[in-house]
Amino acid sequence: MERHFEKSLEELLSALSEMSAHVDGVLESAEESLNNHDASKAEGVFSGEKEIDQDQNKLDEMILDFIALHQPVASDLRQVLSAQDIVVDLERIGDHAVNIAESAVRLSGLRTPPDLLKLPEMALQARSMVGDSVKSFLTRDPGLARKTIARDDRMDALNREMTRLVIDAIKEDRELVETGLELIRISKNLERIADLSANIAEDTVFLVEARTARHQST
């Protein structure tokens, strides 16, 4: 019975890792579409988002079956409930990647590619935070989780700086209004991806230490 429990848990975590890989794939495609002004790269985001939705449905069923069959308690229950939260966060990250790709497609249609300002740095940071947050959960590493949570402040600052830079540019050239709005939209979506990554990292702390990491100093 113990072996069956362990096997079921391994399969669940393996499926979560696979979903995370799919999310990383759509983030990579969205980043390439944005940085290279290449609308064709966005297709990988739109098709990948469907895979992520399928992953969510699969994991939802696996989690419900696991709870019904094994009736986990204590740390095992925390792990399964945390995994359930992470599945939701990963699906939302996929949605934000789609939003970014849609904006990237619109920007790629401009005659002159816009200055992306802080967006390349934000995209790199967001993707890294997603990967580290999931890794912290799968390896039960609260130290990595706290480092990931701490990086969210930098993303918040970059988002504010992006908004300020875009507003300043629009003041100088009113024709940049539509372009500026797309840049701000992308920045906000990247900032939300960082927030969701911090949520996943908080789940790691909850899993390992049975307490929330929210509002704690690192």
According to DSSP, the number of beta strands is: 0
* Quaternary structure state of the chains depicted: single chain
Q: Gyration radius, to the nearest Å? A: 19 Å
Name the structural class.
mainly alpha
How far is it from the N-terminal to the C-terminal residue, by CA? Answer: 40 Å
Outline:
By secondary structure, the chain is mainly alpha-helical.
Note down, in words, how this protein is organized.
Helix 1 packs antiparallel against helix 4, helix 2 (42-70) packs antiparallel against helix 3 and helix 5 (142-172) runs antiparallel to helix 6. The longest helix has 35 residues, at 74-108. The chain has helices at 2-35, 42-70, 74-108, 119-138, 142-172, 177-209. 83% of the residues lie in helices and 0% in strands. The mean pLDDT is 95. With 218 residues, it is mostly helical. The chain is built from 6 helices and no strands.
Kindly list the characteristics that best describe this protein.
elongated; 218 residues; mainly alpha
